[in-house]
Each structure stands twice: as structure tokens, then as C-alpha cells.
Amino acid sequence: LFVCCLFWFVCFGLLSNQSLTMAKKKKGGKAKKKKSDEPSEADLKKIESLKVFYKGYLKRVEAANDKEIEAITVAYKTAIREGKPLVHLVLDGVAFHDSETSPSKLEILLKSIQETGYRFISELYLWNVRLEVDDITALATHVKTRLDLKRLELMGCTLESSAMDIFTEGLGYNRSIKNLKLSFVNLGDEGLRLLALHMAQNDVLKELTLHRCGITDASGAVLRCYLPAVALQSVSFEGNQLGFKGLEDIAPAFPELEVLKEISFQENGIDVLDPADMTYLKDSIAATCEHLKKPTGLKTLNLSFNNIGDACGEVILACLKERKELGKAIYFVVATIAKSLSLIVFGFLFAFRFFQPFPGLPALKVMVGHRMRSELFEAIASAGKAKATTGKKKKKGGKKKKKK
Fold first, then answer.
1. DSSP at 32
2. Is 262 helix (H, G, I), strand (E, B) or coil?
3. How far apart are CA 166 and CA 179, in angstroms?
4. At 386, phi and psi to the nearest 5?
5. What is the side-by-side strand order in the sheet with 365-368?
6. Is the pLDDT of residue 114 over 70?
7. Neighbours of 286 (CB within 10 A)
8. Fewer CB atoms near the end CB (10 Å): N or C, the chain?
9. Is residue 264 classed exposed, middle or buried when 0-12, 13-18 and 19+ CB atoms within 10 A define those classes?
10. What is the pLDDT of residue 238?
């Protein structure tokens, strides 16, 4: 008996000691390794590639008897100091020509990138610069062949009208840019037509921003054909002058949109400045709303900073309400037929288990300007919200422990 008790005592001690050790391990866990400040092997290879690019760039500048762009030198030194490759290149207010006969600094830079094989600049920003024909030609050639460029932004740039076709053609060949921003650029209706023409087969571009580009209602028909044909997810025409005529021309494309989720006509001259225009604007908004009642992939329509007034606001509110009810009515007919067939074939339980009540068409958010009655503004905002899912929310902490 004494030997048996001693045996069980030793076993129990070993088990309890092991459980305490396991508990301590779980509590402490593995010690996290501190990240080393030294660059990785991949980064070191990229930095060596950057050094080759910069050395080649200086040689080409010297051969052209020109001066290097100061922003390039600053960006290079910053990347070397931080031990990271140069990924974002910003050229703000740079003069690409010292004189009328001098070579293009932008052309020298882009050729250096191509010829030295540096392939890590994924974002290129050109801000507040004047682009001559040779600058645009160099940029278009660069864009045609690059697979590393993901974002291209031209903001406040001056382009010659003769160079617009060259630039848009280069964009049409590109298959890597996902975000294109041309804001405060003198694009105009002709420039937009060329952009839509050359980008019609592009299935990579996801975001297009054209703020204050001088686009008018003459571009409505072009956008009506272009928007459903491409893979864009977000488009913004903020600060242009499409007006209610342009909106009415574009609206027939709304039911055809499968990929595009958000479109903005913010501050686009969709205004009622003269009471005599109210009837026309109301009819235009009503025609637009007829297309919004149909199933569409569009989730957000931004009409803010346009003075549409109470009358047009009432039309939009009625449209959003009718959209929900229309979706329920369509589903009721389909669901009734489906339930009847499934009831006959599979039985009662299957029918009512797999066919649940339908909440209507997906929510469509319409953003309007504040120049209307506050209750009407709030009603439109509320009508565009997705219906919250019912059900009890789980408590984050679970059951609360009783205090001792």
C-alpha cells in the first residue's frame, strides 16, 4: 500500500509540474524577433539597381551638356540613406527646358530609366509643369512599355492640343496603370474623346480622376458609350461643366454598369439659377431616375455641390423609395414560382428554408447638395443606406467575470 501511494504521488507531481510548465509557455509564448534595421537582400539588389540608374542618368545629362533635375538627386540620396528603393517619383514645378533649343530633361530621365533597367518606380507624379511635344512623346513612349508603373498623376500641367493624341495613344497601350489622375489639365471635350477612344479596350485601369478639365455636356454621349465598356470601379468628374444635359445623356448607361461602383458629378453646373430652368431640370432628373430604378452595379452617385433644389430632391427621394419596392415586387414573382416548383419537387421544408424574403435591390447612395430642406436632405441620405442586418450582436468580451 505504501509503495502504491508513493508511486501515485510521484506521478501526480510530475503531471502537475508539466502542466505548470505548459501554462507558462502559453502565457509567455515565443519571444518575437526584433526586426533588423539592416536592409534585406532583395532591398540591397534594388538599391544596387538604383545606383546603376543614377550613374547612368548623370552620364546622359553630361552627354547632353545639361543639368540634372534637383528633385531626382534629392530622391536618390533619400532612398540611399533609408536603404530603400526609389518607388515614388514626384516632379513639382520642374522646368524641363532651359531654352527653346535645349533637350528635354524629362526625356533624358525616362530614357535613363529604360536603358538602365530600373523597374521599381511604380508611381509617377508630374505637378505644375509645362509639357512640350517632345516631353509628351517621351512620356507616351515610357508609358507604352512599362509594366511597373501603377499610378500616373498629371496635376496642373499644361499640354499642347497637338500632343493630346500622342499622350492618349501611349496610355492606350499601357496594361499596368490602375490609377490615372488628370486634374487641372486642359483636356477639354476633344481630349476626353481621344482618351475614351484609346482606352476603350483597357481592362486594367480601375480609378479615373478628371477634376476641372474643361469637360462640358458635349461629352455626355462619349461617356455614355465609354463607361459601360471598361473595367473602371471609380470615376470622378468633379469641377467640370457637364450640366443636367450631360447627366441626362450619361444616365442610360447606369443599368449597364456592372463593375463601376462610384461616379461623381460633384460641382458640375447641375444648378437651377433661373426659375424658368426648373421644369427642364426636373424632367432631366426624372429621366435620370428612371434609369436608376433598374438593376445596376452602381453604389454611389455623387451630385453634391449642385443646386438642384427641393423639387428635384423630391424626385430623387421618390426614385430611391420606388427602387426598393420595385425590387421586392420583382423578387416576389420569381420567388413565388420558385417556391411552388420546389414545394412540388423537394417538399415544404426545402422551399421555405432556401428562399428567404428579399430586401429589394441593392442600396444606392445618392449624395446631393445642402441647398434644400434639411428634412428632405436627411431623407435622401437615409434612403440610400443599406438595411442593417437584424439579429442579436455578440458581446465582445463574452460573459463578464464576477468581481471578487
1. P
2. strand
3. 19
4. -70, 145
5. 88-92, 123-127, 151-155, 179-183, 207-209, 234-236, 262-264, 300-303, 365-368
6. yes
7. 15
8. C
9. buried
10. 97
> CB under 8 Å to 203, separation ≥6 — which residues?
230, 231
| DSSP code per residue over 63-127 | HTT----HHHHHHHHHHHHHT----EEEEES--S-SSSSSPPHHHHHHHHHHHHT-----EEEEE
> With contact defined as beta carbons under 8 Å apart, do 124 and 153 qualify?
yes
pLDDT tens column, 362-385? 889 999 998 899 999 999 999 988
Long-range CB pairs of 114-118 (<8 Å, 24+ gap) are 114/142, 114/145, 115/56, 116/49, 116/52, 116/53, 116/56, 116/57, 117/49, 117/52, 117/53, 118/49, 118/50, 118/52, 118/53, 118/86
Give the mean pLDDT of 96-111: 93
Would you state the pLDDT for residue 328? 54
CB atoms within 10 A of CB 91: 19
* SS3 at position 255: helix
Global pTM value: 0.80
Give the number of other Cβ atoms within 10 Å of residue 370's Cβ: 9
Summarised one tens digit per residue, pLDDT across range 213-269 is: 999 999 999 999 999 999 999 999 999 999 999 999 999 999 999 999 999 999 999
Using an 8 Å Cβ cutoff, are 166 and 133 in contact? yes
Report how far residue 198's alpha carbon sits from residue 177's, in angstroms, rounded to the nearest whole number.
14
Q: Of 199, 200, 147, 201, whose CA–CA distance to 175 is shortest?
A: 147
Q: How far apart are CA 94 and CA 74, in angstroms?
A: 13
pLDDT digits (tens, 9 = 90+) for 280-314: 888 899 999 999 998 889 999 999 999 998 999 99
Rounded CA-CA distance 250/225 in Å is: 8
C-alpha separations of 275 from 26, 282, 308, 309, 343 in Å: 74, 11, 11, 11, 58
